[in-house]
UniProtKB/TrEMBL annotation:
InterPro entries, per database record: DIOX_N, IPNS-like_FE2OG_OXY, IPNS-like_sf, Oxoglu/Fe-dep_dioxygenase_dom, Plant_2OG-oxidoreductases
Native source species: Brassica campestris
Name under which the protein is recorded: aminocyclopropanecarboxylate oxidase
Pfam families xref list: 2OG-FeII_Oxy, DIOX_N
UniProt record similarity statement: Belongs to the iron/ascorbate-dependent oxidoreductase family.
Gene3D superfamilies associated with the record: B-lactam Antibiotic, Isopenicillin N Synthase, Chain
Taxonomy, superkingdom: Eukaryota
């Protein structure tokens, strides 16, 4: 069993209907799929691969050696308890947000100038919005509008993109620590550019962990909690995790498309007669406050812990 791979170029041709229904099916059954022929130029992807590995080498690798996961693992080995570490991840991570560019890694030339993948992802996810929204029986642009709700006149409170650049360095004891603990993603949709060579990402499907197989230059898409709510549970945000590995330094770049912190998110008008709303309505910023403490805990209680509207 492998997660669905969808040829996105077919969305504009004769096979549009089939492509749309394949996407809908993947969102319903997996919460995960991979896009090939997505339209993001290879040149740009190659540049991003190079920039992120240059950045890791010059600005991150040395610091990882004295990071918390490394220290905790060493302590554990000294104690020889054999217990697995559940409080941290064997991951090096930095986040790129448009509004905090001065906090971006600054010694990797070209990084700041190159938010290209983010921009391209933005376009791709808005195209996706057209298709996903329609697949859910919603008018085109519905998701974009819902995610921008609460927008201020000055345009500061809009749906936004965040990019998380991760590396999972080789780990001497992958049985004792996770690359990234199991979780669902909080936001709307995630576009993930994962390593071509080293695997490790797994998704939970019918109680079984399934590898998200590396496909050269593909973009992995997954549904976040807000689309689960908006679709009233028809699309599910799937549990996923990253395994630590003894070999390789796996790269992954996740672009999160999130609602404005002020947007009110709830199930979209339920069209079928008699269907009930299965989720409360809340403000996305309030959800994020709960998520910050409960990311690695069961999902349903999170929705109930948020102040309802
Ligand atoms: O590194 C990956 O492949 C997945 C990362 C992830 O799930 C996350 O950042 O939320
Ligand atoms: Fe995730």
């Amino acid at each position: 069993m492998a997660i669905p791979v969808i040829d996105f170029s077919k969305i504009n041709g004769e096979e549009r209907e089939k492509t749309l229904s394949d996407i809908a099916k993947a969102c319903e059954e997996w919460g995960f799929f991979q896009l090939v022929n997505h339209g993001i130029p290879l040149e740009l992807l190659n540049k991003v691969k190079k920039l992120s590995s240059d950045c890791y080498k010059t600005e991150r690798e040395e610091a990882f050696k004295t990071s918390t996961p490394v220290k905790l693992l060493n302590e554990l080995l000294e104690q020889n308890s054999g217990e697995k570490i559940e409080s941290v991840d064997w991951e090096d991570v930095f986040t790129l947000l448009d509004h905090n560019q001065n906090e971006w890694p600054s010694n990797t030339s070209g990084l700041k100038g190159d938010v290209g993948v983010q921009r391209r992802s933005e376009e791709a996810s808005e195209q996706d919005d057209g298709s996903d929204g329609r697949n859910l029986g919603l008018p085109k642009g519905y998701i974009k509008k819902a995610f921008n709700e609460g927008m201020e006149e000055d345009g500061e409170e809009t749906a936004f993109f965040g990019t998380k650049v991760s590396h999972y360095p080789p780990c001497p004891h992958p049985e004792l620590v996770n690359g990234l603990r199991a979780h669902t993603d909080a936001g709307g949709v995630v576009l993930l550019f994962q390593d071509d060579e080293y695997d490790g990402l797994q998704v939970l499907k019918d109680g079984e962990w399934i590898d998200v197989q590396p496909v050269h230059n593909a973009i992995v898409i997954n549904i976040g909690d807000q689309i689960e709510v908006l679709s009233n549970g028809r699309y599910k945000s799937a549990w996923h995790r990253v395994l630590a590995r003894e070999e390789g330094n796996r790269r992954s770049i996740a672009s999160f498309y999130n609602p404005s912190y002020k947007a009110a998110i709830g199930p979209a008008a339920v069209s079928e007669e008699g269907s009930e709303k299965k989720y409360p309505k809340f403000v996305f910023g309030d959800y994020m406050d709960v998520y910050a403490n409960q990311k690695f805990m069961p999902k349903e209680p999170r929705f109930l812990a948020v102040k309802p509207l």
